[in-house]
Amino acid sequence: MQVGAAPATPPDSISLKSDPETRIPASTIYHPVRSSPSDHFISRVVIDANGGVMVTRSFGSQTDAEVQEIGYVLADVKEGDRVGLTAVCSLFGQVKRVLIVAPPQPVPGTGPE
Fold first, then answer.
1. How many structural domains does the chain have?
2. Bridge partners of residue 27, in order along the sequence
């Protein structure tokens, strides 16, 4: 019996959101894994702000067979900053998503009428 290698796939996409109050960019990295999850996963995530690396995190597996979820507090980012997240597959490819930090939104009922 001959076994063929399963093709490695890069991350599909990233859903990146930022909460201006908490400064926590929450992310879901879509990376469906059809082969062994111990061999094929999101191995590294790099978060940068305005081009400078703020966080690099390595993983030995991903959240599940479809996604890797992460969230980090970025205390030094401010309104207008460009925050990027790069997700790297353990076997092949990477994807990057960038967002601009939005200003804090007023809580309904607390601002001027």
1. 1
2. 16, 70
